Every structure is written in C-alpha cells, then in structure tokens.
Amino acid sequence: MTAAGSRLFRSQAFIGGRWVDASDGRAFEVHDPADGALIAMVADCTPDDAEGAVAAAHRAFLSWRGVTPLERGRVLRRWFDLIALHAEDLAALLAREQGKPLAEARSEIAYGASFVEWFAEEARRIEGDIVASPSKGREILVLKEPVGVVAAITPWNFPNAMIARKVAPALAAGCAVLVKPAAETPLSALALGVLAQEAGLPQGVLNILPSTRAQEIGSAFTRHPLVRKISFTGSTAVGRLIMRDSAGTIKKLSLELGGNAPFIVFDDADLDAAVAGAIASKYRNSGQTCVCANRFYVQSVVYDDFAARLVKAAAALKVGGAFEPGVEQGPLISLKALSKVEALVADARARGARVLLGGARHSRGGTFYEPTVLGDVPSGAQLLSEEIFGPVAPLVRFETEEEAIALANASEFGLASYFYARDLGRVFRVARAIEAGMVAVNEGFLSMVEAPFGGIKQSGIGREGSRYGIEDYLELKYVRLGGLEG
C-alpha cells in the first residue's frame, strides 16, 4: 500500500477529536525531498485554531486527569498495539515525507512505539511520598499531579519518534496535549492521531495542528495561561525565544536544543569498532540528527589509519531514494539545508581542510549530498562550532587525553558525546570529564527508551524517556494533615 493510499493518510488538523480544515481555509504543500514531488496539501492552522485547540485540550484535561492511571495505561497500550500493527504504513509515510531510507524509517517507528509502550506501563508507577512529620498528630503527604495542558513542538528529522517521546509520558501523567509538528513532515503526526483516536483516547486529549505559521502558533501556546508546559525540540535560538515568551505565564519547560557532539578516538581504541560507530552516528539520517557526531578528534598516532578506514567505509554507503533497495543515505530535507552544508564545507576548505572523500552535491541532483570526510580541519572552521546537519565528518588531530577533553568541552553545547578507548581508567576519567548530558563509550548509538535523553549547557533542560521522563509532566503537591491525635 502506498503512503497516499493508506487510511492513515490525513491532511486535516485534529482538534477536539474532529478532523478539520484550517479556520481560514488555507493549506500548504508537503513535498518528497528525494524528488520534489507533491505529496499532500495540508491544513495550515491559524492562531485562532490554536486558541480553539487550547480550549478543547483544557476541557479534556479536566476529565482525563481523573481517569485512573490503570485505564490511561490501557489506552496507551492499545495505541502501541495499533502502531505496531500499522508499522509498515507508518514507515512508508515517514520515508516519503522525510526522505530517510525505508529501513531507517522502520527503525524510527519501532523506536517511537517503544515510548508509548514504556509510558503505558509507567502510568501506574506515579508514586508520591509520606514524609515523617516533626510533630505528633500530623502527617506530611507529597502527591504528584499532572501539570495540565502541554504544548509539544516537534522537528522534521524524527517526525514520529519525537512526538511519541513527548506525547506518551504526557498522556500517562494525565495531561492533555497540543502537537505542532514541523511543516516539512506533518503527515506522520496526523497518522499517529488516527491511531490514537482508534485506541479510544477521549476527544480533545490529543490535538494536532500542522501549520507553516510556526512563530504565530508558538506564540499562541507560550502566552496562553491554560498551557502549563511547553516541550520543544529544535534549535537553541528558537529555544531561547520560547523561554522568553513563556516567562509571562511561568511555564514548565522541556527544551531539547542544539548539539555539537564530539567523537573522540584514542590511541588504544578498537579502530574497526570506532569506524563502525562513526558511520552509525554521523551518516544516519544523512547526518540530520541532533546527537550525530559533529566533530571528530583523533589521536595523532592512529589518525591516518582511522581516516583511511573511515573514508573506505563512507565511500561504500549507497545513496538514493527512500524506497530503493539497499539505500543507506537519503537526501537532505531541503535546498536550504543543502546550501548550509555546502557553505560549511567551503569555509573549512578555504581555511585549509583537505577533502578526503566527497565534498560536493551528489550526482543524483536535488538535495542529495555526497558522504564526505574532511581531513586536518583547522580550529577556526565554522563546522566545528555549528551543527552541520549533513553527511560531513570533519577530522582533527590531538595529542593528549587532556587536550581531547578540552577540545570536546570547548562548546556552548552539551547534548551528546562519543569516545572510543579500551583503558578502563581512561574510560572513567573521560566519561566524567566530558560536559554532556549523554556519553556513549565504544558505541555509536545512544538513544533508547530506558535511558534519560537530554543535554546540559545550551543544549537544553529536562529529560525525555526513562523513568525520569514522566517527571517533567508532573507537579509536586505537599499536603499537611493535622488533627490526627485521636
């Protein structure tokens, strides 16, 4: 079944349990990034639509918060089962609108579903405390209650998983949710809405507002007093604006922002494993991930060997459209993204970096870019301080462990980091010294539902996933009971 032929294919907004057009009748185009083909015309929601969705979510919240955790978990479990049942259609739709290879799209659907399954179970584990009172005849209770209406603003690079990672814990906690998906990839979000409705989620508990008017919709959320929490994944620049605009109503915030992940290869590393990890971290989703390796620091004694092996492995990657057999790297999301990668590579070359592989648009045209490795990248190159968001691996030599740590930490960001070493003492020293919310040691992949996902410094605040993830959707209430002397 083609994505457009699936019953999961929707182009209207989902507000208050109904599928509706934008209030002004406008729609926007969604294109396949691989060939530019028009996929759909999708409702372009307005600030008025956002106001209506907030009201619907608040009404739904007043009843949803009273549903028992057991029943909330059962609804989420039905949603998970439906996602699993329709995984192939969801993957096809995702691959079509986002461009990632079908195999990667299938992995994303499974990854997203894991959050729905996990938080279906966590709903029953929202536990408070009884604190010992300092005086007789009194008790101190600590309760955990849902924060209220949550607005989730999600990116285009993982249009299924980022929604599931935010919505599932919010629903488990008893919150109602407003989702503003990226305009590039709204179809995956709307498909999840279809399945949530079929799972029995009450009207208004989940609302999905596709729109090209991101700033206007965002402002409607940040300034509305009934929206009590914002969960955002995207750039640090936009995260700052959300923090600023939310100050007027003192909202609870979860911000998963920019990254600039170092990937360190020490002289005692298993180089085959390091290369495999580099390929997995750097070229997955064409380098368009917030946690992908952005700058490679390689100890001088193994630099040439590692560089040669990485070039060989990257050169073997098959580039193509999402549905072509064996494809490992797809297109970039847009011409704007392609131009950014070109500019960063040009800047590095102008400063003296050597092109070891690639370094140009792919012969397929469109928004495809060659798998690229740059050698001896100088410290002033822009791509060492900016997120590349493309399939480019810049290599830098270092001499000592202390130098590697200093280079890794010389960034305003602190989301993910990777390093390869076999000396146990070094592993613990470096893991503790690196300034990042997540550290992968001898691994090129670190995202999983059981682990807390998030960063430090200007990479954001809050954590998603794991048993800690539901806490960002809860408030603590202290209750002091007196008159219990008997």
UniProtKB/TrEMBL annotation:
This is Succinate-semialdehyde dehydrogenase / glutarate-semialdehyde dehydrogenase. The active site is at E256. One of its GO terms (biological process) is gamma-aminobutyric acid catabolic process. The lineage of its organism: Bacteria, Pseudomonadati, Pseudomonadota, Alphaproteobacteria, Hyphomicrobiales. Keywords: Oxidoreductase. It comes from the Bacteria. Residues 19-479 form the Aldehyde dehydrogenase domain. Belongs to the aldehyde dehydrogenase family. InterPro entries: Ald_DH/histidinol_DH (IPR016161), Ald_DH_C (IPR016163), Ald_DH_CS_CYS (IPR016160), Ald_DH_CS_GLU (IPR029510), Ald_DH_N (IPR016162), Aldehyde_DH_dom (IPR015590), Aldehyde_DH_Superfamily (IPR050740), Succ_semiAld_DH (IPR010102). One of its GO terms (molecular function) is succinate-semialdehyde dehydrogenase (NAD+) activity.
